[in-house]
Amino acid sequence: MKILDRVLGVLLILGGLGHTAGSLQAYKADQMTLLWSLCASLFVFLLAGANLIRAGRPRDTALAWLCLGGGLCHIATSVRFGVLIGNVFDFRPLIFILITLGLCGMCVRTLLQRQ
């Protein structure tokens, strides 16, 4: 399970790289939107990094709670993005939702192991 946990973290980083590249391409003429889009990329990288650290620290419940909260927020914003573009099942929000759901499941697993 630790391998799956780390694979999901790496996939989230790859998704963040794709988000960054897409943002730079799509919003190069709109600097304000580009800034906010790159902030979202930064959030993805921080969430992925925290989850990769959490995967190596199975007894750290504080970190698991932090990752779970961040993951749930990321799922909410990804669903909202899907609604805004008119298709929640579009590849862009769907891949982030699925990867982050997996990471949230790993957080819950960590939290339940402590009890």
Low-confidence stretches: none
Radius of gyration: 15 Å
Q: Which class of secondary structure composition applies to the elements?
A: mainly alpha
Number of domains: 1
Q: Averaged pLDDT, please?
A: 96
Please work out how many helical segments DSSP would assign.
Answer: 4
Strand/helix succession: HHHH
Query: How many strands, what sense, and barrel or not for the largest sheet?
Result: none
Strand content: under 5%
Overall form: elongated
In total, the number of strands is 0
**Helicity range of the residues?**
over 70%
What is the straight-line distance between the termini?
A: 19 Å
Describe this structure as you would to a colleague.
The chain has 115 residues and is mainly α. It has one domain (2-113). Helices cover 85% and strands 0% of the residues. The radius of gyration is 15 Å and the shape is elongated. The model has no long low-confidence stretch (mean pLDDT 96).
